Amino acid sequence: MNAQKSIARPGVLGALLALLFTLPATAQATASDYPPGSAGAASVEISASTPRNGVCEVGEFCLYYGLNMSGSVSDFNGSVPDYGSSPATCYTFRGPGAGQGQCVKNNAMSARNKTTANRVTVYFNSNYGGISDTYLPGEAGNLIPAMQNENASHRFVNIGS
Ligand SMILES: [Ca+2]
Question: Where is the signal peptide (predicted)?
């Protein structure tokens, strides 16, 4: 008779949580989607960083519009197989400075890996193809000359910490 398999406690809270758990799994859950202390908050990975907020934080990989990590930044917390090239839908540079609002694709000059456990490789082509440049955790610097303004995807590979 108990249809709430994963809910131990009945009542209003249980009903609320049951509703949350029926939401589409494709929705990207963040800590702010759940009330503090709820079971939902415990079921998602909580990161201190906020991807796509224009600030390069610990746990993120960041591309920069300019050389030597200058200009606007685009901050990521995972792999992106295709940045997109349409101004309306592409991944953009978010931070203040030169390049802000422009598409990231074929527009980055340098990068910083602020993750603690991911080797991140930037690729010339979409879907991780062609020549590449790899940044280990903590590394930062200009893309190799052949890839400056020639970046189309990047991939995170967890290498442990
Ligand atoms: Ca960020």
Answer: 1-27
What does the pLDDT look like over 73-97, one tens digit per residue?
A: 999 999 999 999 999 999 999 999 9
Phi, psi of 131 (to 5 degrees): -65, 160
DSSP state of 123: E
Domains and CATH numbers, the chain: 12-42 (no CATH), 61-158 (2.60.20.10)
Give residue 85 CA to ligand 1 midpoint distance, Å.
22
Centroid of ligand 1 to alpha carbon of 49 (angstroms): 5
Q: How far is the CA of 76 from the centre of ligand 1 (A)?
A: 7
Q: What is the pTM of this model?
A: 0.71
CA of residue 84 to ligand 1 center, whole Å: 20
